[in-house]
Every structure is written in structure tokens, then in C-alpha cells.
Write a structure and sequence with these properties.
396 residues, mainly beta, Immunoglobulin-like, Sulfite Oxidase, Chain A, domain 2, 2 domains, five-stranded mixed beta sheet, five-stranded antiparallel beta sheet, 8% helix, elongated, disordered N terminus
Length: 396
């Protein structure tokens, strides 16, 4: 699909009659219990980390010298010349964990690069809200933004920076997830491969805000973002968009008349209302339908099944972790909404009796604002969420 598809064209999607009849996904009530792991193994996340040599490879003495072990890690908090901080602060790992005994927060958060469509993985992150970390600095004056970065070989050319407006740090609305200095992933210390021992996690943002190997916070009076990712037309304030993806977008050849597809949906800030599919019979497949192709006016989008939340979380959560202790759950261990924002939802499609032939299969999300993927998207650099397509052949 053309990434410059006009709004008027997108609004027409799914408004015309069906190309195929008599097909439909199972109802939500018929959905089986979840069978796929909800959390990603820390060492199986997709990785886009930088550095030469890459800090994730540091072991032994190299990790010690870089401050990438719990015993040697430190976080320096200072201010620039136009801001005031009553107490510049250096926090070590033990002090952060001590603060976490009373201030820790846990939440599910999926990581995704803004220019890589497929999510990199999902974790249960634990850490201390930045607002609580900054309380140790005392009175702050003339602060408009927080700049931060991690270890990158002490080479200025390699440092990967990011930033937040100070209100995003201090004034998180009640009930919302705050940015945290995270020290646990899935109930265990964060490995260096995932940016440990401490990394930034910003729940609503793409991965470039969740800096790995966090070691420096600078309070500043500057209004502009210093994000490395702001270069090359990237949007430094982009947030996670609601979008659907296939587990695999490889073409399928099926013996029979039953079509099955699986995937995930990233639940962005606008939430997730539903995931839909469009199965189109074709003579010559086109994964990328060009702007103005009349096929967009003929598409019929139908709902797929979203897997429900696990009835028993003990097989999904780390030992000793209760759902009620995780953001988004009530005291009875039930989610306040499902799927949870900034997390991944699993979907499935099972169609029986599909006539033999060649098909294009597409999936998309509709968020709680009523926007169908890929809307709204004025700038592709603020998050890649084009409608994915796979080619399916059924032999009958």
C-alpha cells in the first residue's frame, strides 16, 4: 500500500460490498484460551541497539569499566547552566532498588522502533518513576526539559540521546503509566543485552525514547528536543500507533479450504477497538496496491478474533508476581480494559470453506477514536503502520 494514500481514499476502505460471501471468523465468545506466551524472553527481543563495539557484547572487565554491572552502575543527575537544581545527585544500583521498595511500578510494555513495523517484543518492566528519582534533587527551577543518554563507548559521536518535556516526567495524569528508570524485566534483573542493568522505559513512545544503559540525566531550560532520532525527518515526539501485524508475512500455499492466520496488534495510545481482515480473490496479486486502485473501494473488512486475557496468569507471569500489582489491573486481578494500551494483543483468523484460488489477505486495526490503520499518519517517520498483506493460495 502506498504510504501516501490520501485520507479520502482511506475513509472509503471497507464501504463497498463483499467480494467473498459466506466466510467469517469465529466469534469472540468462541475464542480459545490464549496459547501464545504473553511475555517475550529477554534474550529473544528484536534488537536495534547501536555502538561499535556494541555495549550489549560487553562482558567481564569491559562491563565493569563501562558501569554496566549492578556493582558499578551509577546515574548522574545534573542541570545545565540555565537551570537550577538544589542537590545534584548520583544514584547507584543499590540506592535505586532501595527506592523501589516503596516506589516501584510494574507494567506491560511492548517495544517497537518507529521505522520497523514489527514489534520487537513485550516485557513486564519494573522500575522507579522518574518523578520519584528527581525528588532527591530537591528544588528545581527554570527546567523545561529532561535530556538523557546511556553508555556508548564514551565516544561523543556514538552517544544516543533522547529527551522528555518536564511535564511528561512530573505530571503524569493519575492512572497513567509514568516513564521509569527500569531495573527488572519479566521479574529478573535486566540483562545487558536488553539495556541493563538500568534503562529508561517510556510507555507511550517508540523505542528510541527508552534509552539503554542509562547513566545520565540533565535538567535543562532548553525547549527543543535533543533526540538523536530527530535527525533525518524522524518525529521526536511520536507515540505508539495502533496497528496489526502477521506473525509471518510469508506467502502461504494451503492444501484444502481452511485458511488460518495469526498475528499481533500493537495497542497504541488511542487504544484498540478491533482487528479486521480483508480477503481478496485476485488473478495477479499486488501486495502494495497503488493510490487510486479501485480495489480499495470494493474491500469488505470483517472482524477477526482477539484472544482474551489469560484466566490464570500464573503461567504467564514471573514467580511471585500477582496481576493486582501490575498497572492496569484491579484488586481482583482483572484488567481494567483489554487489550491494555502500549502492549501487544494476539489475534487469530480461522476461515473454513474458502474456494480454491489465489488471494491477498490484509489485516488492519480500528482504534477507539474510530481511525482505521494506517490513519492518522501525516508523517511516515512518526511510526510505520502501513496495512500488511500476504499472498495465500488455496489448492482445494
Amino acid at each position: 500500500m502506498d504510504d501516501k494514500l490520501a485520507r479520502r481514499d482511506l475513509l472509503r476502505l471497507g464501504l463497498a460490498g463483499p467480494l467473498l460471501t459466506g466466510l467469517g471468523a469465529a466469534s469472540q465468545e468462541d475464542a480459545p484460551r490464549p496459547t501464545r506466551p504473553y511475555l517475550t524472553d529477554p534474550l529473544k527481543f528484536g534488537d536495534v541497539s547501536r555502538g561499535n563495539p556494541n555495549p550489549k557484547t560487553f562482558k567481564g572487565e569491559a562491563a565493569v569499566k563501562a558501569g554496566l554491572t549492578p556493582e558499578t552502575w551509577k546515574l548522574d543527575i545534573t542541570a545545565d547552566e540555565k537551570s537550577e537544581i538544589e542537590h545534584p545527585l548520583t544514584i547507584d544500583y543499590a540506592a535505586l532498588l532501595k527506592l523501589g521498595e516503596t516506589r516501584a511500578i510494574r507494567y506491560f510494555k511492548a517495544l517497537q522502533c518507529n521505522l520497523i513495523a514489527v514489534p520487537l517484543g513485550q516485557g513486564l518492566w519494573e522500575g522507579v518513576p522518574l518523578r520519584d528519582v528527581l525528588q532527591g534533587c530537591g528544588k528545581l527551577n527554570d527546567v523545561r526539559r529532561l535530556y538523557y543518554w546511556g553508555f556508548h563507548n564514551n565516544d561523543p559521536k556514538q552517544i544516543f540521546r533522547s529527551s522528555l518535556a518536564i511535564n511528561q516526567v512530573l505530571d503524569t495524569p493519575p492512572g497513567e503509566m509514568p516513564p521509569i528508570a527500569a531495573y527488572k524485566l519479566n521479574g529478573a534483573p535486566i540483562p545487558v543485552e536488553r539495556g541493563g542493568p538500568v534503562r529508561m522505559i517510556v510507555p507511550w513512545a517508540h523505542g528510541f525514547k527508552s534509552i539503554k544503559w542509562l547513566q545520565k540525566l540533565v535538567l535543562t531550560n532548553r525547549y527543543d528536543a535533543n533526540d538523536t532520532y530527530a535527525e533525518k525527518n524522524n518525529d521526536p515526539e511520536s507515540y505508539l500507533k495502533t496497528a496489526a501485524y502477521f506473525d509471518s508475512d510469508k506467502d502461504q500455499k494451503i492444501q484444502g479450504t481452511t485458511l488460518r492466520a495469526r498475528g499481533v496488534a500493537m495497542v497504541g495510545w488511542p487504544g484498540l477497538d478491533r482487528v479486521e481482515y480483508w480477503l481478496r480473490a485476485v488473478q495477479t496479486p499486488k501486495k502494495d496496491l497503488p493510490l487510486g486502485d479501485p480495489a480499495w473501494n470494493e474491500g469488505k473488512w470483517s472482524p477477526v478474533v482477539l484472544e482474551p486475557f489469560p484466566g490464570d496468569w500464573k503461567d504467564q507471569l514471573p514467580d511471585g508476581t500477582l496481576p493486582k500489582d501490575i498497572w492496569g489491573f484491579n484488586e481482583q486481578g482483572k484488567p481494567k480494559e483489554w487489550p491494555l494500551r502500549f502492549s501487544l494483543a494476539h489475534w487469530r483468523l480461522d476461515l473454513d470453506g474458502v474456494p480454491p484460488g489465489l488471494y491477498e489477505l490484509r489485516v488492519r486495526t480500528v482504534d477507539k477514536n474510530g481511525f482505521a490503520q494506517p490513519e492518522p499518519r501525516p508523517n511516515h517517520q512518526s511510526g510505520d503502520n502501513l496495512i500488511p498483506c500476504k499472498i495465500v493460495t488455496l489448492a482445494g
